[in-house]
Amino acid sequence: MATIRDLKIGQAAEVFTVGGEGALRQHFLDMGVIPGVTVQLIKYAPMGDPIELKVQSYELTIRLADAEKITVRNIHDPEDIGRSLVGISSMPDRRDPFESEFIDHPGLGEGGRFHDKKTEHPLPDDTVLTFALAGNQNSGKTTLFNQLTGANQHVGNFPGVTVDRKDGVIRNHKNTLVTDLPGIYSMSPYTSEEVVSRQFILDEKPKGIINIVDATNIERNLYLTLQLLELNVPMVVALNMMDEVQSNGGSVNVNKMEKLLGVPVVPISAAKNEGIDELVDHAIHVAKYQEKPGRQDFCSPTDNGGAVHRSIHAIMHLIQDHSEESGIPVRFAATKLIEGDKSVEEALKLDQNEQETLEHIVKQMEKESGLDRAAAIAGMRFEFIEKVTASAVIKPKRSREETRSNKIDRILTGKYTAIPMFILIMAVIFYLTFNVIGGNLQTLLGTGISALSDTAESAMKAAGVNQFLISLVIKGVFTGVGSVLSFLPIIVTLFFFLSLLEDSGYMARIAFVMDKILRRLGLSGRSIVPMLLGFGCSVPAIMSSRTLPSERDRKLTVIMIPFMSCSAKLPIYSYFISAFFPKQGALVMLLLYFTGIAVGILTAVISKNTRFKGEAVPFVMELPTYRMPRAKNVGQLLWEKTKDFIQRAFTIIFIASMVIWFLETFSPSFAMVSDSSKSILAVVSGFIAPVFAPLGFGDWRMATALISGFLAKENVVSTIGILFGSVSALQKVLTPATAASFLVFCLLYTPCIAAIASVRRELGRKWAFWIVIFQCTVAWVCAFIVHLVTLAFV
Ligand code: GDP
Ligand code: MG
């Protein structure tokens, strides 16, 4: 039997069976790769793996190994490559043109339709109307959320998981609260995003759901809609990107779709701020009057001989009482049970007999329909969606955006151009961030902070403030917090570019291009961006790891990031190179960068085979159409990051700075010292210094430098400068050989406090602690090896 792997570029075929198991398989099905659907092979990634497929009306990447598990038949060359008619709903001719006319804003809002269904008891006026905002990735969720809430947002984490949680009050509607759920394709419990969304709706019971649907990609987006409807929570569908659909000659018969789905459908353009008010009115209305969806029954007695239909309804009857007890909506529970969802099974507490009955019903359904349980349910949903789109949607022939995307992709993911373009784009971003924008701003901010610090110092001296306080403010606050704050411009600039990459759709392409390399490390293509950012600064790099889809990938990536030579390590390198290796500068620099990368890779490979066994998450990812990022989204994100960073600078970093200042300023008998060699820090360093003796730098001053480097890596150089006084004094203590092992130690040992704080935020306290220990150990071992090697050969 032929598989997707056997397709040639441009060829299309009908999916026959979808192999594999568990999460990966469910994910395929949820993304619309189901038996009977037409897929077309668009291209191979430059390294030959993964591949880009066209399914329904969107593009998807999968790995070759996974493509092999999907068998196909009826391979053919479609006459028009890339036409958006590839897909299951390609029967445009049966439609009545009058029915399909696009109705701009149905304007049915408060008066007509809804009042027929209105319950007599609206929720009391003081109830907070809570909404969940749910939708696929790239459907415009962030844009809509920003339009709905304006500046009234609050960002946090979902309890227990590091997935962003954004809440906000709808503009001009007090007593409302919208929660932005993570972008998901399905309500399967496989990714942490899906689990979060599902739990949020089931446990926190929002008063309503706002489901955002990308109208340019309607089949796949409605797949989630059907599952949300099964939850039996009041809901409105926001049909987004209508501007694009219309300008390309497509249209949607909103009334018809509304009737078929049983919930209000409001066409909007989040980016152009059109239709938002109607959306809000409808959302508030359904929530206030608790209007449940008018329809949940998407199966039909005529499809596939009705096998799926009969099994769903049989199971609904079977579990009715358990569903009521556990509070899981019955239709949702039934379809999830058929899909084989273990967590629903447990929550329902079915007894032995019922479980067996359930399995019998499912077996019978599989036998009658000829499909396995998961594929049968996915097929049922897509069949209904096909009916909806066939009667309510006129698809644009081929959109301008799609044509443009294909053109851009010819270069950005082209066989010979993809990697050079990637390197070029990253180089430009780094150049602009570290040299032009970030660098200059950082210098400016640094100068500003030190000027402020000088002014404060002389003012305090003039006012006769006691020395203790002066030292606290100047050394503790200004030096400590100031040195970290001066990173702010770099971080904001990096995030600016990062959000451009993400919002434009290029990030998905980078993952597509780099997946093959990263796979060897047990990671997926998506980890490339955080790792690259690590060469700039670990803080935004670690923060950006949150875009990774699985916990495992996130941890592995975060462990690797600090081994990359961040820009703060550069001053150390240059200082030591000019002191010890003036002739081999470039070589030493290169070796250091390379060592960092090599150690990172080694760590990944070892972890992959030990602590992080198993595969990276299935790399089934949508390649969204390129779109111009909105200034508003980017601005909002930068503001969030800035706020977040400043908050941290003044909490955790502030405290850490105070502690180090304290240790450096007081002697063990708590008297203030002017000579830091008598301070607690020096005494402590004296204790620690012997640890470094085997590495060749057991001097207490070197130990002090390393400890102060914990605050910020540049501090290593400034501390050495203060404690030694001159380069020649340093040259008396170290040889080129011991300098080399010191450099290696600096490269690898624990990242600065700001980075550790980010690790803590992303992965928790325990992980932050272990990463510090792990990295110091690795640094020690590597420096020791370098020392041994240099002793033997130099
Ligand atoms: P999210 O991933 O669901 O949060 O989607 P975003 O809000 O980041 O939007 C994805 C892309 O679609 C961005 O480039 C937006 O500018 C764009 N976009 C969002 N809404 C619309 C819309 O109504 N019309 C058009 N043409 N583009 C939109
Ligand atoms: Mg978004």
From TrEMBL:
Residues holding GTP: 135-142, 160-164, 180-183, 240-243, 269-271
UniProt membrane topology term: Multi-pass membrane protein
Presence of the UniProt keyword DNA repair in the record: no
UniProt binding sites for Mg(2+): N146, T149, G150
InterPro entries per the UniProt record, alphabetical: Fe-transptr_FeoA-like (IPR007167), Fe2_transport_prot-B (IPR003373), Fe2_transport_prot_B_C (IPR011640), FeoA_core_dom (IPR038157), FeoB_Cyto (IPR041069), FeoB_GTPase (IPR050860), G_FEOB_dom (IPR030389), Gate_dom (IPR011642)
Subcellular location, record wording: Cell inner membrane; Cell membrane
Bilayer-spanning residue ranges: 416-434, 477-501, 521-544, 556-581, 587-606, 645-663, 679-698, 710-731, 737-757, 769-793
GO cellular component assignments: plasma membrane
Keyword Metal-binding listed: yes
The entry's keywords: Cell inner membrane, Cell membrane, GTP-binding, Ion transport, Iron, Iron transport, Magnesium, Membrane, Metal-binding, Nucleotide-binding, Transmembrane, Transmembrane helix, Transport
GO MF annotations in UniProt: ferrous iron transmembrane transporter activity; GTP binding; transition metal ion binding
PROSITE patterns: G_FEOB
FeoB-type G domain residues: 128-289
NCBIfam families per record: feoB
Function, as annotated: Probable transporter of a GTP-driven Fe(2+) uptake system.
Stated family: Belongs to the TRAFAC class TrmE-Era-EngA-EngB-Septin-like GTPase superfamily. FeoB GTPase (TC 9.A.8) family.
Listed name of the protein: Ferrous iron transport protein B
Organism whose genome encodes this protein: Candidatus Weimeria bifida
